[in-house]
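Title: Prediction job returns without error message
Component: structure pipeline
Severity: low
Priority: P3
Assignee: unassigned

Description:
Job completed but the reporter wants confirmation the result is attached to the right record. Sequence as submitted:
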Amino acid sequence: MSRLSKAIILGFLTGIVGLGVGLTPFGLDLEENIGLDLLFTLRGARQPPSDVIIVSIDRKSAENLNVSQAPRKWPRSLHARLIENLFKEGARVIAFDLIFDEMKSPEEDNLFAETISKARNVVLCESLKSEKVPLTTQGGSPGGNLNIEKLVAPIPPFAQSAIALAPFPLPKVPFKVSQYWRFKTEAGDTPTMPVVVFQIFGIQVYEEFIKLLEKATPSKAEKLPHNKEAIITNRSVENVIREIREIFEDEPQVAERMLKELQKEQILTTNSKKIQILKSLIKMYQSPNSSYLRFYGPPGTITTIPYYQVVQIQEKRNLRQRQFDFNGKAVFVGLSERSPDEQKDGFPTFFTESSGLDISGVEIAATAFANLLEDKPVQPLSFWPHITTLLLWGVVMGLVCYLFPTFVAAMSALGLMVLYFIVALYQFKTADNWCPFVLPLLIQSPLAFLSSVVWKEIEV
């Protein structure tokens, strides 16, 4: 057998090992928990879009407002005042990452419900309750269980007043949060909070969106309301989202046709922000049910304002004029502490700080919304490019390590690894493209080099 043939065999074996590991849950977890973590660390923090703001419910706010440290016990008149102030300041959409599933003071509840109704831009959070439904065979014997997730809405006065309801499920610790649901499969493809908030935020371009849809599929577009005011008045945001999603799933080419039409429109307008929102809405409906989060940085990277400062905004107008700008923004309200000891709603992520401070659930929701707005999620390689990358890298490393003398092979392999490292990091930094990282550099490359050394020694 020739030297070249042996090198090719070694290369293909290295590639096959990479594929064998890379397609297993172990390999996928390795890339996500180590590779993606390292890429985020090397990339560093990024500037989030200015269109999203977090209002943090925290200990400092409880002290300044002289209320309980437990947010569930806060008077709902405070939430009403918060909504009133945000509405006056021009917030486009207000999302509460809180569960309102209990009746309290009738006076407080009525005031909160009335304020929500008047604002016409408040999204409330639904919770998800897992249920096991027993199945039986045709003969009547047990056939296992079917796991379903049931949506639990806020109490009726609030649910009927909100412009929309939406869940935002996240895994519990110790799992590291790296993805989020756009549409929750187990709950009947229900749109989650980031999707619902972005659709309301993008209601300003709804008529333009429908016109593009009419050009792409006239018969399907007829089923949708053509007036954004009707959607708001009827509080039918979730139904509209479901119908649009169904159109995109039934006709996968609709998105591409709409994007082509949008390119023509782009020539006729200088409103780049409107074009970006339209493009992002199309991509949102075209995308799969779940997506990797493009984190912007450690906790607090997204603009965060304490709850008490917004409630007291009218009392401190001069301060407001210097610090706050809610006009046209999406505002997320939820628990967010800056101390790990006091954090009650934190989730481990790639940016969990050494002190133990995690990113809060409301900041993850705001991050997902910002990703949708910018159309910049983390994009892992699709199946075939992923396989091709691992296989070709194995072949190249096998050839280099076997054909060259040991020292030259080591230096050449190291040089190729550095080059791959630079290219992968550049792709992640500039285009959010996530290439295999751990397997090529830490498994395939050492394997190819050590195997070549052993094989050569055996032949001597």
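Comment from assignee: result matches the submitted record. Residues 3-43+381-454 form one domain.
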